[in-house]
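Ticket #4471: structure export looks truncated?
Reporter: QA, pipeline team
Priority: medium

Steps to reproduce: submit the single chain below to the structure queue and open the exported record.
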Amino acid sequence: MPFWLLYRLSDLLFLLLFYVFRYRKKVVIKNLENAFPQKNTKEIFYIARGFYHNLCDIHIERIKGFSISKRTIVKRYKILNPEILLANYNKGESVIALAGHCSNWEWGAFAGGLQTIHTNIAFYKPLSNRYIDNFMQRIRAKCKTKLVSIYTTARTFKDYKNTLCVYLMIADQSPSNVQKAYWVNFLHQDTACLHGPEKYACLYNLPLYFLDIRRVKRGYYEVEILKLIDNPNDYKEGQITEKYMQILESVIRRSPENWLWSHRRWKKKRINSPLCTSNQ
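Actual output as written to the record:
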């Protein structure tokens, strides 16, 4: 289906989710109110409305990703500065590239393998339907990206330690194990953060980058690769995670409607644990 028709379907889906089914609308509004206490009801409403438009576009674009051509991906999802990774490649270094659930993060697994020189490994949560899951892996493989289950993260870093890789990680979701979480002040709230990216960066001494994904116009995106950390072992525990969350927050504040507000990001509460660190 052509993109113009897909976006008409997205507009229809938006009307259904926002006005009819009110999909997680209370969660979205509550999250926005807590994150932006200075904004009034009208401002919160317009951000929420923009978020549902973005959410519907992402779902449509995810489906389109099953049949999208390599040429179209490079045209519509352009990495602005892939050459920034050449220095690491020439030094024989793998890197970790962190992103958030901003704009269209789905096409990143396609674009990275086509526009960077490293082997691209994208961590993801496998689908319950193994046939669809296998199909997704084959599609990504055509774009030179290997999908790897988040449940095999430790083994993957070990298996690929002698391969020059970009490890793609979405790290802004709520951790399943709060006892291992790092805690930071994020969008005015005490927030539990995944410990994995920092853990593996320090364990294998891997530089970290942040992927700043921006929507240029509907269906077109640009990604700027930003240097986050060069030498992870030079930092105290929790500082790398804090820096990542600070950059992510600045990106969210720039275009709040493009972040994933429908997940219950702040459902975890801090507990007394020596593995938790306070960065406030």
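Status: closed, not a bug. The export was complete when the record was re-opened. Leaving a note from the reviewer for reference: The chain is about 40% helix and 20% strand.
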